[in-house]
Specification:
This protein has about 100 residues and is mainly β. The protein has one domain. It has no helices and eight strands. Strands 4-1-5 form a three-stranded mixed beta sheet, with no helix packed on it. Bound molecules: zinc ion. Zinc ion (ZN) binds next to loops.
């Protein structure tokens, strides 16, 4: 159990590398360690009363199928988590 906040897409998103819909829970430590979980459509207000202003914020997930690390951004509009955008896969290569 890590210390991060979770952002859940409305349905699993496709990995940019293997194209399988494996990405279900994007995480962030950007906002402190609130251990809160937000779904698309939720207003993003943390328990310490911080609210996200409109913009894009970095999150990440990893693909359960190919092991790629996937960086993405959550898009906040009107204080609401509206979508996850700009998915970029990074593959770790073991020597
Ligand atoms: Zn993948």
């Amino acid at each position: 159990m890590g210390c991060y906040d979770s952002f859940l897409p409305s349905e699993p998103m496709a990995c940019p590398l293997c194209h399988k819909a494996t990405l279900r829970e994007f995480q962030s430590k950007e906002f402190g360690e609130n251990l809160q979980s937000f779904k698309v459509g939720d207003k993003v207000v943390f328990s310490d009363c911080l609210q996200l202003i409109d913009g894009k914020y970095p999150v990440y997930d990893s693909c359960r199928e190919c092991g790629a690390w996937v960086n993405a951004e959550i898009h906040i509009e009107g204080g609401v988590f509206v979508r996850i955008v700009n998915l970029v896969a990074v593959k770790h290569v073991h020597p």
